[in-house]
Structure formats: structure tokens, C-alpha cells
Records
---
Amino acid sequence: MDLFGNIKVLSLEQATVLPYLTYRLAMDGCRVIRLEHPVFGDPNRLVGDAFLPGEERMNSYFMAINAGKEAITLNLGEPRGKEILLRLIRDLSIDIFATNQLPKNYTKLGIDFETLTRTKRDLIWLGITGFGPDSNEAAYDPILQARGGLMELTGEKSGTPQVSGIPLPDMGTSEHCYGLLMKALFKRAMTGEGSRIDMSMFDSTTSWLTVPITMACSFGKKISRRGNTHEFFAPVSVYPTSDGYVYIAVGNDKQFQALAALREFSALNREDYKKNAGRIEDVSNLNQTISDITSSMNTSTLLKIMNSIGVAAAKINTITEVAEDPAVAGKLLKARDRQTGFELTLAPAPASTPFLETNRGRLSFPPRFGEHNGAVLGTELGISGAELAALKADGII
């Protein structure tokens, strides 16, 4: 049963946080129409390499999270643009409207909850902001990482705070919004009522600080970055091998005793290391001893030894190696451009969906700027070709 095939999403989106959310909805089979300003568009279209010959606004960075969508342009700063927006909501029977505009623009653009729900009473309205609907403060992912404590927790103990390798506030907020939208769809199915969802990226970010906040505020413990080690368990870190690096995580005293019992690791067989507390107290020397041992082993041998005694360990892979991993390779998504034949490889879904299984992991190619103006505004809304041309000339689309 296709639960999401009839769900229509209209999203005034840009950057990462909202496009990733609607990309997740596209993986479910929802129809996602991304809405952009006819002049400025989504700035992420211009980020990264331009690899489609002679084409602008289809750069590589944009490709990663925009497959499976349609794209139209509309100038909501003009009365005619606002009128067309309401027609889209009504005539296409839009289920979800989403935006990551600043709150001060809601009324100005005619995208506020009150205006849109007068047109469709059971609409689910989502507004993603940096710091809540009462704030117009700009919020980029690294700013949220800095203010939200993530950078304080990332980096070497004696080094400077670092940003994470992926935009966690962006993508974490997307995932939180995904759950809230599922709840809103369930509520509507049960009651017939729409919903207003205001999601703060800062709230989303700080909600991940479960252990750090409890430890700092309840127990007065300073929580800060510790590099690759763990605050409460040892040995847990990255260790060098003769041909790379391996992450080893010893989870309890029993596992450590199995490690220390190995001939290669006999130097760890010390009384003060039998308990985790003793290992934490001497963690620097402990990790140096382990590094001295592992640096003379190749990665494959070390992993076999760890696996043989039930200690969790993994080679630190490059991104290409991750994509080639047998557990990943078969789950990568694909999107082929009908115009050029170029095939895009995309990260796997967090969990497969009936839509992806039916389509064998294939999504439509990321939409070109305004690509679906004719189909959506013309064919579906009934705006004539001559009127579309006039709208374009007037800067409305």
C-alpha cells in the first residue's frame, strides 16, 4: 500500500536544512515541489563544480539532496505571485507547506500560517528557523554548532574547537522535522485537522546534548572535547597501524581482560588496568602503549584479532571506501539525467521505503531551475502559454 504517493509538498526552500527534509519525503514517494525566487533561487545551486556543460544553477553541491523533486519559480514579493501561490495550495490540494524563510518574511511573502490555512484548512504548515519564530537572527550550521555546544565537544583535548565533518544542526533538524510531520499527518488522518509546526534549529541542536548537559548541570562535571577518546570508557580511540588507522572501542572490563590476555597486548596486563576507572585515570599512557603495539601490525591482522575476542573495531575508511562497502554499495541511490545521460550516485536512505524498493533505488534527477513551471503552472493550474510568457517577462516566474 502506497501511504505517501498522494502526499503533496510545496516547499519554499534553500540551503540544506529544508531541502534535506524534503529529500527524505521524496524518498517516501511524496510529491515534492520546491519553490524558488525567479532571480535569486537557491544559493546552493551555485555551490561546488558546474559539471553539466553550458548549464548554470546545477552545481555539484546542489545535487546531493535534491533528487526526486520538481522545481518552479515564483516571485512572492508581487501580488500576482501571492495569488498564484494560493492557487497552488488550493488547486493542487497541497498537504504540507514548508519554508525556512526568516519569520519577518512570512506575512510579507504571504506564506504565514493564517493566510495559507484560510485557503486550505487542513494544511500542515512547517516553518524552520534558527532560533524560533520570534527571532530573525541568521543561523548557519557552524553558528549553531558553536552556540549549541557541538564545537566545544569536537576536537583534540589541547586543540581548538572544531566543526563536525557533516552539518549536524542542519540534518538533525531535518530529522526532527520529519518526525513532527509524520505526527501531523497522523493527527490529520485521525481528526481531519491541519497543524502549525515551528521548528528551531537551536532547539534541535541542543536536544542532542543529553549526557553533556546532565553531567555539567546536575553533577558539576566539566564536559569538553577529548579528541578520539571517550569521557567514560577506555581504551576507546584511534590507533595507528602499519597501513592506516583503526578505531577500537573496549566497552567493559571483561573485554579489556580478553585484550590484555593476548600475547601481542601483554603489556596491558596490569593490576591498575583491570577496572575501567584505573584505565581512565592513566588513559594517555594506556593509549600510547596500545599505539606502540598496533603500529607494527597491518590493519587486516589487527581487525581479525579484535573480532576474535569480541572487541568492536573498524578500519577508518575514506568516503570512497564507505561507498564500496558491501553493506552500503547495494543501497546507494541513483538518479539519471535524461538530457545528458549522466548518472548521479547518492547516499543511501536511513531506512528503505516501499517507494524506493518499487523504483529500485532510483529517483528523478535534481530539477533544473524552474524546470516544472510549464507542467505545474501551465498544465495543472491552467495558465496559458501566453500568460506564462507574460509572467516571466514581468519577473513573476
---
Amino acid sequence: MIRRTLEATLKKVARQYPVVTLTGPRQSGKTTLVRAAFPSHEYASLEEPDVREYALADPRGFLAQFTGRVILDEVQRAPDLFSYIQTLVDREDKPGRYVLSGSQNFLLLRSISQSLAGRSAILHLLPFALSELEGRKPFPLEKLGRGLPRGRQESSADPMEALFRGFYPRIHDKDLDPATWYSGYYQTYVERDVRELVNVGDLESFGRFVRLCAGRNGQLLNLTSLGNDCGITHTTAARWLSILEASFIVHLLRPYHANFGKRLIKSPKLYFLDTGLLCYLLRIQSPEDLRLHASRGSVFESFVISELIKNFLHQGREPDLYFWRDSTGHEIDAVIDQGHERVAVEIKSAQTVVRDFFAGIDFWRNLVGDPETPAALVYGGERSYRRNGVAVYSWIAL
């Protein structure tokens, strides 16, 4: 089993809270993680019809059968359980008594906010980070832009192969063909999860909407344009996009709004959280296709953004990650807010670093008035080093 970075945080919060909730997209490894982290817990999956029927018909009796600590998987399928769990943990506040997991962020978080606020720690598990596949710790976020990886970072992986393959565990565990797996994953997602999250009458239009979103990966979000191209209203486009967010399919990267005396862009940027799924939706057929594809840069950018998000989430932290762009077109691909300082991150898919790659960072440093402010450049090459006062990171160093 490939060890998950989140496991340490999961065990830590289970010693502090009576309820621990783990959410994430389907097939991200949630069940495997909680069962490995808590081997002595009892286990019940509400995905099984008879178990779900028992929980829905007699929630008190269902919970009473567990005499010790228990893992309840896909718990959003029996939402009434949350109120009964609240009563039980208020009566006996035992750390780690209930470990809840599920794939539908909407339903889970709504139920938690209504019944388990203050009683539950909430963690999110995304598919594998590159560091997990490489069997090492992720690069420390607090050192990003200042330090470099210790020793030489080496990998036999080709960046285009890694991005095309994506990071869902089952593909790596079973060495599956990515195109076939993502086809089945996407069809199941649209036909099942979307119908359960919200009533989408026309699944064909929703599928077209998802592919249009893929074509806009890495771009500023324009819901009116997106809706017009799909033949739906602005309101419907916003609702459908919220489904993609709740399903951990996409992430909306918000703009950084520090007042630098410039007119700033206020729209978020749209990113897919898994590059393999993104390649499938863009109909990219192979790593060689990706290497020559017009969307290569945006796919690579999506990879870096998702790796940074995983770095935050898999340590139990909310991502303090933004982008910055002014009305004249000056832009920083990612800004990490470290509280006491801001780290600018530029992203380039090329394997060779050229001087022009530093233009955005130079402008940013002049804007903030600090030529030494930490900055990073992530690129598609293999070597990490310093250049022009900027920490240059190989894609395998994150």
C-alpha cells in the first residue's frame, strides 16, 4: 500500500475529536486510508443496500450495534444518522468514536454544519500526490521560494506520461489503461453522482458543459460565456459548476486582492484537480498527443496547482492559494499566503528555463517593493537550482 501523507493528521485529530469526517472524490482512496489508519475500528459501508436500509429504517438500532469505535463509509447516504451521532457523542465524548467518510461534499458538510458543528474534524483526501507515488514527503510549503530540495531529485517518470496517466489510486495499483478507466469513471460520475447531488434533467447537456469547462482549464471563469456556449442560463451554469466543485472535479482559484494600487481582476480561474481526467475530457489520446497539444501548458499548470492544493489538504490545512493578475495583463500563476509573507509561483511546462520566465516575478517584486521577496518557478525539467534570486523547481520536486 502506498502511504498517504494525510494519515498522520487523520490519526492526530482522531485523538482530539469524537467524530472525524473524511471527504474527497470517488476512488481517491478514502476507504483504504481509514481502514489502514484504524484497523481496530468496526466497519460498515452504507453503499451496501441492506446496511443502508437498516440505517434509514432504524438509525438508533443501527448505531447501537457498534459497541466500540466505528468507521461509517459513504455516510451521506443516510443523512439522519448525523443527528443521532450528535446525541451519542454529547452523551459520551470519546475521541475517535466515529470515523465518517463520503464522496459528496455538499451533503456531508451540510449535515455536519447542522448536527456536528464543533464535534467533528473535517479532512479532505484527493488522489495521489506525486510525492506519495515517489515514496517521499512533499516539499515543505514554508520553504517554497526559499529552500531547494535536499540532494538530487530524480525520477524515471516523463512529465507528459505522468500528467496523462493522472493520479487516481486504482490506475496505479492495478496498472490500468488510463483512457478506459477515466471513461468508466466519468460515466459513473455523470449518471450516478450528478443525479444524486441535484436534479439535472439533461445529462447530455451537463456532459457538454463539463467538456467546455475542460477547454477553459486555467482560464478566468466567465459563467455567461460558458452558459451561452452550452445553451444554458447563467444561473444553471453556476449551479452545475458548484456540482463539479462539490465532487472535487474542479477547483476555483480565487484572485489575490492585496491593494497594490492597481485595478485587479476579480474573477476566479478554473482548474481541474486531476490531469488524467482533464486529458480524457480534452480527448488527448496519449502522452505524445499531450506533448504537442495546444493545452499542454494549461494541463501542466493544473498539475502544479493541484499538487499545491494536495500539499495543503493532506496536512489538514485549508489552501491559502490564489493567483494575481491586474487589468493590464501582468500575472502571477499562484500566490501562497504564508501569513507573514506572500510567495509568488510561476509555472512553465517547458524543460528549458529562459530569461522571459522571470518577467512576472520581476514585476511582482517591484510591485510589493521587495526585491528579495520569496519566489518560485516550477518547470518541466529535472534540475532544481537558484537563478536570478528565484528558486527554480523541477516538476518532480513538489
